[in-house]
Amino acid sequence: MAEIIAAVTTSHVPSIGIAMDTGITQDPYWKPLFDGYLPAKEFVKELKPDVTIVVYNDHGLEVFLDRVPTFGIGAAEQYLSGDEGWGPRPIPPFQGDPDLSWHLIEHLVAQEFDMTMFQEMTVDHGFTVPMSVFFGGPAGEVEEWPTRVIPITVNTIQFPLPLAARCYKLGQAIRKAVDAYPKDTRVLIMGTGGMSHQLQGERSGFMQPNFDRMFLDKMVSDPMALTRIPNGVFMKEAGHEGAELIMWLVARGAMNLEVEEVYQHYHVSASLTAAGLACYRNK
Amino acid sequence: MGRAIPISVAAPPMPVWSDRFRFCANKEAFMSSSNEESGSTPSITERIEEDKRLARSLEGTYLFDGARSQKNYPLNKMCMSLTKQENREAFAADEAAYCDRFGLSEESKRLVLERDWIGMIRSGGNIYYVFKLAAIDHVSMQHVGAQQNSMTLEEFRAKLNAHRDQ
Q1: B129 versus B11: which is more confidently predicted?
Q2: Interface with chain A: mutation pick from B61, B77, B136, highest number of A CBs within 10 Å
Q3: Are the beta carbons of A149 and A28 closer than 8 angstroms?
Q4: pTM of this prediction?
Q5: B56 to chain A, minimum CA–CA distance in Å?
Q6: What does A113-124 look like in DSSP terms, one character per residue?
């Protein structure tokens, strides 16, 4: 039988990817962030997931404003790093798991989550940076990804965004779907984005560590409270782009109500973003 | 495995987000209401309007809702096209003519040619699409942020670093 063995969450800032790809992770600006990632890499290495479900938002690679799926899922054999405007990242291709993808699609739709299905898709920094953070070496280097992947996309760009509660329920539905998968499969779920940051407008550069710390605390102690935060409130407290935090709740929803936080790291800032990372195990 | 950086800051008191919506006031309610005396919960319309009102009240923030998404669709579409190398080359060869192909207004074209980031955002540009234009110039998000704030890069970086003390 398949099972979700853990959840991990992290910010997915493009410049974190650029730092890894250009070999400057030990520069004074980046060193504290990358040093903070090391225990998370160890945690994931020991988990040896067969499949990693990566919950992220497309930032204008596969999705333009002409058609915006609120929730999407990949069902491809392979996913390549795409060209977001500054060329693809120099990383190996990701191997998919179409069999599990279609199982998830069937079980999610049966639970009334009407996913948009992608049989061809490239993935952007929202997907690739977290993968490098958790599965790459100390400087993010990767020869071959040690896990198959399934991308799940959430619209966090075109308002209205799905509600935090809906994201949490999607996680619960993913959990049920994985539990019903007959093949022995160890599944890691990864929630990405956030934490507080704003990129647009005169308010760009806004961050709020107090909110982020509250969010990190409640991810463990009271995730249901987080599901009641309206998206306008996320924008106020975490910034217009910080509303991405709803994607952490997809990962959280796939876990037990009681979890143990194995590791946490918080760093201000990676470029304009308060960078948070956490690892959770079921209790 | 312990935390590398223990959280030394105590969790902040439970914030009250607005008159109507409260955070964590009632575990049963999806979003609890300030109308606790009457026990009523806001209607869907009220929830949507309250959410938008809050988002639109944030200074220096441009809620990217449907109206804004429609406002300067050609600008975002032009920027989206820059995810292809051949389009980046065509843009670089003649920026104004390339903008014309996507039907940008004269004003939007001026904003693009002048790399007026805050102007593009105000006119309906979405930061993620507009940033593809910045990438062509090898300009970082910090540069874009500084210009939006009418700050030098050094001033903007100081603003970012100031959050470390919070």
Answers
A1: B129
A2: B61
A3: no
A4: 0.92
A5: 9
A6: ---EEESS-EE-
